[in-house]
Amino acid sequence: MDWNVIVVSFSMVFLAELGDKTQLAVFALATQRHAWSVLLGASLALLLSSVMAVLLGSLLAGYLPEGTTKLTRWASGALFIGVGVWTILRAN
Fold first, then answer.
1. Residue 52 to residue 35: CA distance in whole angstroms
2. Is 64 left (phi over 0), alpha (psi -120 to 50) or beta?
3. Mean per-residue pLDDT of the chain
4. Rounded to whole angstroms, how far apart are CA atoms 5 and 57?
């Protein structure tokens, strides 16, 4: 087990989730429903989405040539920006 990878993964996900729309939705739901039930449901959802991301990443790693880390980061950033623009356009 690589503790460095664990700490980096935790830090990245924790910081990425702070103040995002998912956290705000959980916050709103917890004001109306049983807090422990909301916590369990939200935790399971994050766990499942993380499992799917790790499985997909592991699968794609077998098909990507070495040295594509920079390309993967650019593609991830572009996808993130694209989803943000799409979300803004849908709001109007």
1. 26
2. beta
3. 88
4. 15
pLDDT tens string 30-45 = 999 999 999 999 999 9
- Looking at the predicted structure, is the pLDDT value of residue 49 above 80? yes
Identify the helix (H) or strand (E) that includes residue 42: helix 35-61
Dist. CA 14–CA 7, nearest whole Å? 10
Distance in angstroms (rounded) separating the CA atoms of residues 39 and 42: 5
Output the six-digit token pair for 5.
């990878």
**Exposure pattern of 18-42 as b/e (b: 16+ CB <10 Å)?**
eeeeeeeebeeeeeeeeeeebeeeb
Nearest to 46 by CA among 67, 74, 18, 17: 17
